[in-house]
Amino acid sequence: MNALVDVKPGLGATLVEVLAVTGRRLRHLRRAPGRFIGVTLNPLVSMLVLGYLFQQSISIPGGGSYQEYLFAGAAIQVGLAGVGPTAIAVATDLKGGLIDRFRSLPISRSSVLIGHTIADLVVAVLGLAVVTGVGLVLGWRPHTDLLSTLAAFGVLVVFCYVVTWVGVLLGMSSKSLETIDSIAPLVVVVFPFLSNAFLSEQNLPAWLAPVAAWNPISAVATACRQLWGNPVTTGGGFPTDHPEVVVVVTLGLLFLLTSVVSLRRYASTAN
């Protein structure tokens, strides 16, 4: 039996296995749509409360529409809101015996976790579509060409995928679902407020401004705003002037760290 587990399938076989796990997760979503609602609810609330009700009370240094400034932050929340569901799904599989069933099958050990992340990426993309539609209704507009607009959404998709691996690692590391339920809301709410997702660094306390400037969320938001031609803040130093560099470096390191550690933990669990 152990010999079967150690089989190294080819690329085609691994792809089939990944798609099978992905399909399983998506079928669960169809039976439990509340997960999709949870991914889109926080960004929608942010746009409605901050961007619609309080937009006259919040100003952007340099001027411009706050609704357009806010949209990048709300879109980023879609990815952050997926951390909790991903972690819970992985932790449930670990504690529910699914790993034991996979252990008896000649499948690639990485296909299970990769399938989880791809399924959750699909959910995030659907969530981005909903948030974008609501953003257009509330007044958000891109002011650049189609290629630049799509490139910004590409940055968001990459961010969402990297963040799913954060959820995987959280699920592999957590000892209980209650721990995940406590941590996940903090990720969605606290991290954006420690960045320029909702407020410019210039509007934050002096001690917090450098933290917000170097927060990867700030780099993603700034890069998207530049690509869309939306209002951006200036004067934040290197991360503000070169957000694309910060995006590549920070997301690349985060992806390597979370994916490698998660796959190693999964391999040790499956032994």
TrEMBL record:
Gene Ontology MF terms: ABC-type transporter activity
Extract the Pfam families matched here: ABC2_membrane (PF01061)
- What is the designated name of this protein? Transport permease protein
Q: What is the lineage of its organism?
A: Bacteria, Bacillati, Actinomycetota, Actinomycetes, Pseudonocardiales
Q: Where are the transmembrane segments?
A: 34-54, 69-91, 112-140, 146-170, 182-199, 245-263
Organism domain of life = Bacteria
Q: Which PANTHER family match?
A: NODULATION PROTEIN J
Question: Which GO biological process annotations does it have?
Answer: response to antibiotic
Q: Which InterPro entries match?
A: ABC2_TM, ABC2_TM_bact-type, ABC_2_transport, Nod_factor_ABC_transporter
Task: Please report which protein family the annotation says this sequence is part of.
Answer: Belongs to the ABC-2 integral membrane protein family.
